[in-house]
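Protocol step 6 of 9: fold each sequence in the batch and record its structure tokens directly after the sequence line. For illustration, a two-sequence batch is reproduced in full.

Sequence one:
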Amino acid sequence: MISRHPEWPPTIAAPTTPCPNCSPDTIVRVSDLENFPAPAAPSGMEPNGWAVVGLAANFWAGASAQVGEGLLLGQPAQVMFTPIGYRWNYGDGTAGSSVTGGASWEDLGLAEFASTATSHVYTTKGTYSVVLTVEYRADYSFGDQGWRPVEGIVTVPSGPFAVVAANESTVLVAEDCNVNPHGPGC
């Protein structure tokens, strides 16, 4: 799915005068994309901001291909950013990477706390700052000349979000705590 970046209105037309930079031999590098900010991906995790020490916490990102319009090398152009990789810094000194952004346990048809390609198991209780970095491939087009690759990879970190990892224990009770909330273990 490709969508337009919300900050970029669709107003660019094909060049009306000869464009020396529009040659198929032109090499466009990531550093040339200063007028085209790559989108930060929304990210999340489950269970919603907390984790159980020793069990998998599931992380995902909602990145998708985005097209923006503006000036590239002084000429009207379009740039398309396509996510190709996801790097997670889990905040506990470990990191993980995947080629997909992941999905919720429900969307994957998995039970809660099941391991996924984007999950992580915290081994110590604490509060951790998690940062996702999405890697994008960029392609550009001058007018209707077709898409051409940009040299290099665009990396965009997300804003950090906190995860609280805690120990969990099971308590056996002699009675239903709803019936007797003051019973042992309630």
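Sequence two, same batch, same settings:
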Amino acid sequence: MNILDKIIADKRMEVDLRKSLIPIKQLEQSVLFERETISLANRLRNSQTGIIAEHKRRSPSKSVINQNLNVFDVAKGYENAGVCGMSVLTDGKYFGGSLDDLLTARASCNLPLLRKEFIIDEYQLLEARAYGADVILLIAAILTKEDIKQFSEFAKSLNLDVLLEVHNEEELHKSIMPSLDMLGVNNRNLKTFDVSLETSKKLSELIPNDFVKVSESGISNIEAIKELQPYGYKGFLIGENFMKTDNAGESAKQFIKKLEK
């Protein structure tokens, strides 16, 4: 069983438990459920920098990244830095996140918020909506083509943007459909955890221009972004780079300043 299989097995149990504790009706009655969402895809299309900054305490590949920064300050800092959107990890067991992190981020900024999660059930999309997310992530590696269609169409009915993440050509081919807004290429090999920007370059020409192209993982410097922009990438997801510092917002601010030069 690789790490991804393990995460998904745990996720199924977790979602079943949550469903039994909080009925859908209750999620739909949340104050945030009817709020007007902000499109990350539109922000990225109109941006010169395209930074999506992440809040992440730890990860299976890196263990602890930073347990000290609170989400409220990080979200505020990212917004002041001028990022296009913020990614909030809500997985508890492997990444140390929670849905409350999403709620806190929503209370402290007006950025488009991505719920970064292993989505395997429509229920999680209702949660995302109820807790203030604007965007959901679907991971092609863990979903069938039917799942992707079902979840992305359901997300659109909730006015949520959809970012679909692929790792290779096979995943990309099964995933391309009109109910997606953004296609994210993850440069990290999920089996070996090796990272290579070549993955983004190789897959870029196979992604139709109707979708906003996003590159994820292994982007820790300005050079990487400059290298990928000619391939049509408009979004760059940066997590560990900012979170490794004492002040994620300030770190993002300096990064964007350099990028704009």
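Proceed to step 7 once all outputs are recorded. Observation for sequence two: The beta strands are 51-55, 58-59, 63-64, 85-89, 113-116, 135-139, 161-166, 182-186, 212-216, 233-238.
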